[in-house]
């Protein structure tokens, strides 16, 4: 791939253990490289299976110049296609979501089955071969209800992440949930700042009073000192005790950390504070109808991070998913979905305001932090600063993963 000498030099001189140089957050040229090297070559989490519960249900996802159509077919399989008619390239589905019987182009009415085959194209003559004009498929993987797509001709191997994560995710039975709420926010910041902010909780105590109600202070990295040694030991003992209980219930909890692999991911189940059941303002369940076959509410919080664009929190009563989509060098979409059991009744089993309160507040606080960082990166006084080895190790692994992918793409 042709890139400028300046970009090549930036990639080559990246200093481990430090934040990235300013152009990584500001440059339109690097943003274009990000879209090609990252978002066109890797597995991107874009949806959940309950987004398309019935045949004909669809959602559209915009990745740079590409619009992707995700639809459930008549055999209940979730499929992904380029949202482009094979006639003259018109956009097929122009809403964020909807329901169709067949996929019909609004321009000349070329009509496709949900399985992608062209079934009707008027006035094309006897020699026209419909079989050569099916919709162009996009690689898709369904990981226990989380939908990933990849635009590459040859996508990275998904099997290792599936093998590791299915035992953790399947007990929460995401396919038998429903989307109780979705909130899209636009952050005026680079997508990497959004991801870096997510990968650490150094900032949590000072900035997230709602979130830290249910999170142990020591749960995401801390420097041990005489002042906190007793508290850290108590937390570690709680983790060991609860892990034994969960393992006996066939709920895996041990940390898996493979963030530097091509299809990078990490997971861990941790206890919630205050005898916590869920990530709510009182640490109690937000939905009375528990997920899957759960009969016990205090099952901790299972966190799942993927490179490059998602994180998720699985609890006994609900699931929160986050998908990050770059819009420009300085603008990022953060899409949050809250899922509850498909039979849970709004106003009876759960209240949407209570369900969403913690992460609506946290997302808004994080948006402000990302925007502070974006503005700071544009200052002549900015230079890469050192990561904390105790609380920002996952930020370093995200940055190292990212720079390695760019280097592979440009041959640096």
From TrEMBL:
Alphabetic keyword roster: 2Fe-2S, Iron, Iron-sulfur, Metal-binding, Oxidoreductase
Named cofactor requirement(s): Fe cation
Domain Rieske: 43-149
Keyword Iron-sulfur among UniProt keywords: yes
The keyword Iron is assigned to this record: yes
Pfam families found in the cross-reference section: Rieske, Ring_hydroxyl_A
InterPro entries in the cross-refs: Rieske_2Fe-2S (IPR017941), Rieske_2Fe-2S_sf (IPR036922), Ring_hydroxy_dOase_asu_C_dom (IPR015879), Rng_hydr_dOase-A (IPR001663)
GO molecular function terms attached to this record: 2 iron, 2 sulfur cluster binding; iron ion binding; oxidoreductase activity
Family assignment from sequence similarity: Belongs to the bacterial ring-hydroxylating dioxygenase alpha subunit family.
Protein name listed in UniProt: Rieske 2Fe-2S family protein
Organism: Cupriavidus phytorum
Lineage, opening ranks: Bacteria, Pseudomonadati, Pseudomonadota, Betaproteobacteria, Burkholderiales
């Amino acid at each position: 791939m042709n890139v400028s000498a300046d970009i090549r030099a930036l990639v080559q001189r990246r200093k481990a253990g430090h934040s990235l140089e300013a152009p990584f957050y500001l440059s339109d040229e690097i943003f274009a490289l990000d879209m090609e090297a990252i978002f066109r070559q890797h597995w991107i989490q874009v949806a959940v299976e309950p987004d398309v519960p019935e045949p004909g249900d669809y959602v559209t996802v915009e990745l740079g110049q590409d619009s992707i159509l995700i639809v459930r077919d008549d055999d209940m399989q979730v499929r992904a296609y380029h949202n482009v008619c094979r006639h003259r390239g018109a956009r097929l589905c122009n809403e964020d979501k909807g329901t169709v019987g067949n996929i019909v182009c609004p321009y000349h009415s070329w009509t496709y089955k949900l399985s992608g085959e062209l079934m009707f194209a008027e006035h094309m003559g006897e020699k026209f071969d419909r079989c050569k004009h099916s919709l162009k498929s996009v690689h898709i993987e369904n990981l226990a209800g989380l939908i990933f797509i990849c635009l590459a001709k040859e996508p990275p191997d998904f099997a290792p992440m599936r093998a590791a994560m299915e035992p953790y995710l399947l007990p929460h039975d995401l396919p038998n949930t429903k989307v109780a709420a979705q909130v899209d926010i636009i952050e005026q910041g680079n997508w990497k700042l959004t991801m870096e902010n997510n990968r650490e909780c150094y900032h949590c105590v000072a900035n997230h009073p709602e979130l830290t109600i249910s999170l142990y202070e020591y749960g995401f990295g801390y420097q041990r000192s005489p002042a906190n040694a007793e508290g850290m030991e108590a937390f570690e003992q709680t983790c060991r005790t609860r892990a034994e209980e969960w393992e006996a219930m066939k709920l895996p909890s041990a940390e898996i950390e493979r963030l530097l692999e091509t299809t990078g991911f990490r997971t861990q189940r941790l206890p919630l504070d205050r005898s916590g059941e869920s990530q709510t303002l009182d640490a109690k369940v937000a939905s009375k109808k528990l997920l899957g076959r759960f009969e016990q509410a205090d099952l901790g919080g299972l966190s799942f991070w993927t490179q490059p664009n998602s994180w998720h929190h699985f609890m006994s009563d609900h699931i929160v998913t986050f998908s990050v989509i770059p819009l420009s060098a300085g603008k990022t979409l953060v899409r949050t979905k809250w899922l509850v059991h498909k039979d849970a009744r709004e106003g009876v089993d759960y209240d949407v305001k209570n369900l969403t309160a913690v992460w609506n507040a946290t997302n808004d606080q994080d948006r402000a932090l990302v925007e502070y960082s974006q503005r700071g990166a544009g200052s002549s006084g900015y230079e890469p600063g050192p990561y904390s080895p105790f609380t920002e190790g996952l930020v370093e692994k995200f940055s190292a993963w990212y720079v390695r992918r760019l280097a592979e793409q440009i041959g640096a």
